[in-house]
Amino acid sequence: MTQEPRGHEEARTVTVTGTGWAEAPPDLMLVSVGVECRAESVEEAYAAAGQGLAGVASVLRSRGVAPADIRSPGLTVRADFAWQDGEGQKLVGYVAAGSLMVRLRDIGSASAIISEAVRAGGDGVRLHNLQLVLSDDSALRAQARDAAWHDALSAAEQYAALASASLGRVLSVADQHPAAGPVPLTGMQRASASEGLAVEPGANRVEAAVTATWALEP
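The chain above was modelled as a monomer; its predicted structure follows.
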């Protein structure tokens, strides 16, 4: 907590910054699943990647994931070059890649769903990113702001007492908007069908900060 009383008596104000936080278990998992396939021709690479993504999407739908919770940005294909002595860069094939952005609303079954989807997608599947978030954090943010306000008020009252004064009306309030994001699960660049995924949701923390100025009264 940062506290900054104004020391000039003629100003008769006190300004403090209060901080607060609130926690709740996440109820939504955001998953980015990718497929990357190499082949000698554009058509083969594209078809293989499309088949892998279709297999992943099919499993997700069969496990109750709503179509609105599955989004595909599309497939891309690029030439794959390799350096060969005496020949320089040489075209050795093509790489097709695509991904699915998925929202899993039942964290308890997320591990089984992801494992089954990976198995269906084959060796080209990558888990690019997983995040545990709150689908609606508005109530939690309100609690955090409440805590921040009471923190600021407590500090202001203490400074007023130390200055042999009392708090008057509030002159200004500024929300500091501290950064707070989802909890990423890292180290998941590649997955195979034999790998399991243990999900420990824990709790997501939302933080708040407020700077307020009070008038000081005798």
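The first helix runs from residue 42 to 62.
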